[in-house]
Design goal:
The chain is of the alpha/beta class. It has helices at about 20-30, 45-55, 70-75, 90-95, 100-110, 120-125, 130-140, 165-175, 210-220, 255-260, 305-315, 335-345, 385-395; strands at about 5-10, 30-35, 80-85, 115-120, 145, 150, 155-160, 185-190, 195-200, 200-205, 225-230, 245-250, 270, 280, 300, 320-330, 345-350, 365-370, 375-380. Helix content is about 30%, strand content about 25%.
């Protein structure tokens, strides 16, 4: 799985202002970023800027949360620590194993990958002490990116310049800490469960929480995609607050259908929403009162939105890849393949809701079958890691 929870450490060099743009680009990838600035770095860019950009408190001192052990908690939550810019002084302190501020203590506590992006005067970078310190850090498994060559802040020219943002992303990608295979792609995800109203207070619905669709949206955004999340009756607290994810809220199957009809084009669609197969033939305009009588409910079939969309895509000038989802009481691969062909989709992910807890769970698993007859078994696992596995399986078809 690619890291989503990132600690962005910033140290006290003039290049720290460039990390504001780095933070924005990390957030554009739907990454969960916590900024940990050193106190010296705050002389260049203040805590208010980091908090405004990240939407989170920027903790800089070991003394801000003594009882909570901030350095332990920050390190425990992190899946990647990225320190940019990293000064010669901070490199030296890391090499010595110092832990006299929050950022160095966090690094010393962490078990996740640590990446440092040096930025300093070229003579400092080429000093034997810095060369030895960098060698020490690399020997310990810390990834150190080579600084760029170019004009420095005092007018000199040399190696020590803060790299361009795209170069940092390329470096992270080379070390499999970030994936950009969906950069520039348009991904649509439906999530949650549709509701069909019986009267103003009652409805036919299902148990889908939308967590799998949300995990897919976040994973696609983290890999560079622009994402539209069509959310059907999802609890507000679960919805992502990522700039790369546009949220379209719907309630019924008809509303979901209109949202899908409004799509101009897409590269990849995950139809993860649990769509009601039936709706009441007529919904009461007022609440049905209990009167002791026996009542029946006439149901009519809803349109097959997935099949309709797949059929529409067949005649489209630009055809996107469609991945359908099927929750079954038992996995019957022959029936699943028949369903894939009947729906006209490119892939069908089938999960067994009887064997494993799926609805409203944080985990999921099943099999992914393709139009070409291929089959991939995906073990029961957290929905965020499953999302990346699904993207890995289908992204190669995007071009």
């Amino acid at each position: 799985m690619f890291p989503r929870r990132v600690v962005l450490g910033v140290t006290g060099g003039i290049a720290v202002y460039k990390s504001c743009e780095l933070l924005r680009r990390l957030l554009d990838r739907a990454l969960d970023v916590t900024v940990v600035p050193t106190e010296n770095s705050l002389r260049f860019v203040g805590a208010a800027t980091w908090e405004a950009l990240s939407g989170k408190p920027a903790i800089s001192s070991l003394w801000q949360d003594v009882s909570g052990g901030a350095h332990v908690e920050v390190a425990r939550a992190a899946e990647l620590i990225l320190i940019a810019p990293t000064t010669a002084d901070f490199i030296a302190r890391l090499a010595q194993g110092r832990s006299d501020d929050l950022l160095s203590a966090t690094v010393l506590t962490a078990e996740c990958p640590v990446v440092i992006i040096p930025a300093m005067h070229h003579q400092m970078w080429q000093n034997p002490a810095t060369i030895e310190n960098v060698r020490t850090l690399r020997a310990r498994g810390i990834l150190v990116m080579e600084p760029a060559e170019g004009p420095l802040n005092n007018g000199d020219v040399g190696v020590g310049r803060f790299p361009e943002i795209f170069e940092i992303f390329d470096f992270l990608g080379e070390h499999k800490l970030l994936k950009s295979d969906l950069l520039g792609s348009q991904v649509v995800v439906t999530a949650g469960g549709t509701r069909e109203m019986i009267d103003p207070v009652r409805f036919i619905g299902n148990l889908s929480s939308g967590k799998q669709g949300i995990a897919l949206a976040k994973a696609a955004a983290a890999r560079g995609a622009k994402v539209q999340l069509i959310a059907a009756n999802i609890e507000e607290s679960l919805l992502p607050r990522d700039k790369a994810i546009e949220i379209i809220k719907v309630g019924s199957t008809a509303e979901l259908g209109r949202a899908l009809d409004g799509l101009s084009s897409f590269d990849l669609l995950f139809m993860a929403a649990a769509v009601a197969d039936y709706r009441p033939a007529m919904a009461n305009s007022s609440k049905i009162k209990r009167d002791g009588s026996v009542r029946s409910l006439d149901l009519v079939e809803n349109p097959d939105l997935l099949a309709q969309l797949a059929s529409k895509q067949m005649s489209a000038e630009r055809r996107g890849i469609i991945v359908g989802f099927a929750a079954e009481s038992a996995i019957d691969e022959a029936a699943a393949r028949e369903k894939l062909n009947r729906k006209g989709v490119d892939f069908l992910f089938v999960n067994d809701i009887a064997t494993n807890e799926v609805f409203n769970s944080d985990s999921n698993g099943g099999i992914l079958i393709s139009r070409d007859g291929e089959r991939l078994s995906l073990q029961y696992q957290p929905k965020d890691t499953l999302s990346h596995a699904l993207l890995d399986a289908v992204a190669q078809g995007i071009g």
